[in-house]
Structure formats: C-alpha cells, structure tokens
Design a protein that fits this description.
The chain is mainly alpha-helical. It is 87% helix and 0% strand. It has helices at residues 6-35, 41-53, 55-93, 95-112, 117-128. The longest helix is centred in the middle third of the chain and has 39 residues, at 55-93. The protein is elongated. The mean pLDDT is 88.
C-alpha cells in the first residue's frame, strides 16, 4: 500500500466512476433507440451499428441529434407510469364501490329476468369472494 498513494486511489475511483457512467449512457441510448416508435427498423439498425462500432462518437452524435426527443420520450414514459399508478391506487382504494356497482347491475339483470336466481347467487358469491 506504500507504493499506491492516496491520489492514485482517487484517480482510480474517478476513472471507474466515469467508466460506469459511460456504460450507463450507452445503455440509455440503446434503450431509447428501441423505445422510439418514430424510427423504422433500418434507421434503428443504422443507429445501433453506429453506436456499437464507434461508441464514443455514436453516442455523442445520437445525443446531439436526438437528445431533445429522448427527453420527451422519457417524460412521456414517466407520465404514463404515473397515470397507471394513480389508476391502480384509485382502483385498489375503492374495491367496495366497484363490487357494489356490479351487484347493482346483477340485481337489475335479475329483476329484468335476464339471469336466473342461481346465476345471480353464483355471480354474487364470486364478487364478494
């Protein structure tokens, strides 16, 4: 440990961090490339070959050329995830309201004669289970 001073440890950690950050950026670009629905297959293949054969140049050109739309796709994905989460929470928070509504519809069907009492009882037991 005497021949490896503290500054060398710092530089090694810095280069390791930059290397990990580079791979994160490379995977982010490749993920964005496949998530983009506006590009056709040949354009995706071309970008992928460019990014894989000349990684530094390919990633930097991709970020310059398509960086804005990359951010827009990220924001759209976040908004879709948030909307799905809110919908799930609302649905999970009020399961009784959905069951009560279904029971009301089943009762109306039974009253109209569209379903029999046995069918009503089976559907009711299924809803309440």
């Amino acid at each position: 440990m005497d021949d490896y001073p503290l500054l060398n440890i710092f530089w090694t950690m810095l280069w390791l961090f930059l290397w990990i950050m580079w791979f994160f950026l490379l995977f982010k670009v490749i993920t964005d490339l496949f998530r983009d629905h506006s590009l056709n297959g040949w354009a995706k293949a071309g970008w992928l070959v460019f990014v894989l054969l000349l990684p530094f140049l390919g990633v930097f050109v991709y970020l310059i050329a398509r960086g804005r739309s990359m951010g827009e796709r990220d924001m759209k994905q976040v908004q879709e995830n948030e909307a799905a989460f809110r919908s799930y929470v609302q649905q999970a928070a009020s399961p009784g309201a959905g069951a009560a509504d279904q029971l009301h519809k089943l009762s109306a069907l039974k009253d109209k004669g569209d379903i029999t009492q046995e069918e009503f009882d089976r559907a009711k037991a299924k809803l309440l289970a």
